[in-house]
């Protein structure tokens, strides 16, 4: 811990709750991408050592309040921090070490899932899909969750939250482009010997 507080190879010498769990921590986590991440409890994100005065001689009430909110199982003794009060850099490093030790490890979830702190598992998140907040698709397109095994229409988005299933007379990522089904073999084949006409109101064929 001394090397961590001195700022020497922090990635090796400071607390790491994911590293402490080992490489198999997320191996059997359902709906996860098998990678460990960390969550900082909300109550521990309200304090910043940057607000402490440079000439401090004792721990502030704000720090003590923050320290008291840390679970006993991961809380460093208060006198551990008292020895670094006069040196703001060391105090900040000690604070960061404590914050890292108090983080909650979890398994990063797959797209359309979120981590539930109570269940300690990835659960389906209806709000994670853009379809849960309305229909972003145009011209009668149906908003669906994307199939990760298929290429996406939204080429500019690495992990799109929705996909549009377009009527036959429209195309595009949002069904924003008009297309003429009559130009395809289906339109000609079904209408022959009569003339094929584009019919966007026909959500099944797109022509008449």
Automatic annotation (TrEMBL):
The keyword Disulfide bond applies. Residues 127-176 form the EGF-like domain. Disulfide bonds join 166-175. Keywords: Disulfide bond, EGF-like domain. PROSITE patterns: EGF_1, EGF_3. The lineage of its organism: Eukaryota, Metazoa, Spiralia, Lophotrochozoa, Platyhelminthes. This is EGF-like domain-containing protein. The keyword Lyase does not apply. SMART domains: EGF. It comes from the Eukaryota. Coiled coil: none annotated.
